[in-house]
Write a structure and sequence with these properties.
Blueprint (H helix, E strand, L loop, with lengths): L9 H12 L5 H23 L4 H23 L7 H36 L4
Helix pairs in contact: 2-3
């Protein structure tokens, strides 16, 4: 047995080659994402250009912001190619924060309504 060379297992060769080379993505993917980021940014600026107001304005701005952040995280930070558990570990906390903020907004509307109802002086 001494002096014999052992060939690595089939999976070890493929895994070693991938780790040595790294992930290679076509440049076209990055150019398409940059294009979408440009389009989404243009839409975001058009919201102000057309003078939209109120909930529609803020909803559109937040929608475009979340879409741009999702593209950046998925492609430029390589989250699209990560394991699902890691994606959940990174995406779940911001989603939970958004849910809690939404609950606080609803609660603040209710609290404001009660204060106006009970603390307003007689008309």
């Amino acid at each position: 047995m001494e002096g014999q060379l052992h060939a690595p297992a089939h999976g070890a060769v493929a895994t070693g080659a991938v780790h040595a080379k790294g992930q290679q993505h076509p440049i076209r993917l990055y150019l398409v994402v940059w294009g979408w980021l440009f389009v989404l940014s243009t839409f975001s600026y058009l919201v102000d250009y057309f003078g939209l107001q109120g909930y529609l304005r803020w909803s559109l701005i937040l929608l475009f912001m979340v879409l741009k952040a999702g593209l950046i995280v998925a492609v430029f930070m390589h989250m699209a190619w990560e394991r699902l558990a890691l994606a959940y570990a990174i995406l779940a906390p911001p989603i939970a924060v958004l849910v809690f903020v939404a609950i606080m907004v609803l609660e603040s509307e209710y609290t404001h309504f009660l204060r106006v109802l009970f603390f307003a002086g007689p008309s």
